[in-house]
Amino acid sequence: GPMFDWEDPLATKTLLTEEELAISETAERYCQERMLPRVLQAYRDEHYDAAILTEMGELGLLGANLEGYGCAGVSTVASGLITRAVERVDSGYRSGMSVQSSLVMGGIHAFGSTEQKERFLPSMAQGKMLGCFGLTEPNHGSDPGSMEATARPHPSKSGYVLLSGAKTWITNSPIADVLMVWAKMQETGKIRGFLVERKNCPTGTLETPPIKNKNGLRASITGMIQLDDCPVPLANMFPDVEGLSGPFTCLNSARMGIAFGVMGALEDCLARARTYALERRQFKNNPIAKYQLVQKKLSDAATDASYGVLAAIQVSRLKDEGKATPEMISLIKRQNCDRALVNARTLQEIFGGNAVSDEYAIGRHVANLFVTQTYEGQSDIHSLILGRAITGIQAFV
Ligand code: TGC
Ligand code: FAD
């Protein structure tokens, strides 16, 4: 008869195609063999190895669900399985990939002109050109609609605007070649998206200082974007999209990736806690895994991880059929991030004092998972998005 597999309690593998299983195996192998050995030192040194994006590009893992322009064109489930494999190692590595793949490549694919797509996507898919996504500002995080960054007509150069403003907490900004910046047109107040190419920015008009000494997501690089009358050609503006639906469309796909990804981090916490509980002995030489309170912690984590993966698969399938709504994505982003954080924090207790040693990885996951619950819409913001959909009353303002 069928056997229970604690690593896949609800047999979600049966929902995957042959191709999806193969992609997942490729990604898991790369992540375990090539990424995992680097992460401990990278986290200690607060160092992001940009070569990771080039390596992922070589394997076809960047922008994997996009069609054409050198991208693999796989299903949303397959691309979710990639994020899960990456985040099993570290949320910061998944973050670097999400920004490149979902936010920047996804945005260009959805809103770019043919010329923009041809210019940026193939080298981004190879990880040779790196991107970042600038929406959040020092004074406007949960409420990006109130952003202050502006684009004003260039006083002397026709076909150009001057971008000014500050973006903060921007993943990959210090290493990005192309910076997707959302700003309001000075004349209309409408939000538009710009592809700022670092190599074309005159000295002093673009700075991207790193934000150092983070207590989470330390294997990822984060910075600001400071623009001071930076000249950008209108050919680098998304031609048709106006308003928040531009950045939010990019976020839909990134939030989906996070919902899948954080389950990888939780599954890693579970696997490590299980191994530890079977090896560690206390009271009459019993493995602590024998004790009921420890078993409950493992059961809770396995249950939430399997429900989370199942829900992520369902919403991904609906997305590919054109039937997913943003509220569904808010639902799984909120739930999976919250449950990953709560369970990781509880599993941490199983390690006793050793939880405090970074060698055991659990503390790193817990610190990272706090960030996943905060960015791309903090969980309470997603509660309000859902609350609005349930009641018809918006509670933001
Ligand atoms: P609201 O009135 O709700 O909407 C304004 C316009 O946007 C459209 N829209 C969407 N379109 C597509 N997808 C969605 N999910 C959409 N949500 C809204 C909406 O239809 C409307 O369009 P139009 O044409 O009528 O103008 O806007 P609001 O200002 O009331 O928004 C409220 C709220 C709270 C929902 C929103 O502001 C929000 O989601 N806040 C959270 C901010 C956020 O998620 N920031 C993320 C920054 S990027 C990031 O964190 C990257 S981390 C990457 C990593 O390292 O992994
Ligand atoms: P605030 O908006 O000030 O919120 C603070 C608290 O108040 C939250 O708990 C929030 O839920 C609550 N709150 C706010 N308004 C309400 C309300 N109406 N009702 C109830 N509660 C409310 N942004 C980018 O654009 N690009 C990136 O690449 C990026 N990467 C990031 C990487 C890291 C490591 C981090 C930490 C952040 C990153 N962000 C990025 C920014 C992230 O999206 C924001 O931090 C997030 O949207 C929250 O905004 P805030 O920090 O300004 O918090």
UniProtKB/TrEMBL annotation:
GO terms for cellular component: mitochondrial inner membrane; mitochondrial matrix. It catalyses: glutaryl-CoA + oxidized [electron-transfer flavoprotein] + 2 H(+) = (2E)-butenoyl-CoA + reduced [electron-transfer flavoprotein] + CO2. It is found in: Mitochondrion matrix. GO terms for molecular function: fatty-acyl-CoA binding; flavin adenine dinucleotide binding; glutaryl-CoA dehydrogenase activity. Pathway: Amino-acid metabolism; tryptophan metabolism; Amino-acid metabolism; lysine degradation. SUPFAM superfamilies: Acyl-CoA dehydrogenase C-terminal domain-like, Acyl-CoA dehydrogenase NM domain-like. Its cofactor is FAD. Keywords: FAD, Flavoprotein, Mitochondrion, Oxidoreductase, Transit peptide. Residues 132-230 form the Acyl-CoA oxidase/dehydrogenase middle domain. Its EC number is 1.3.8.6. Residues 249-390 form the Acyl-CoA dehydrogenase/oxidase C-terminal domain. This is glutaryl-CoA dehydrogenase (ETF). It comes from Pseudomassariella vexata.
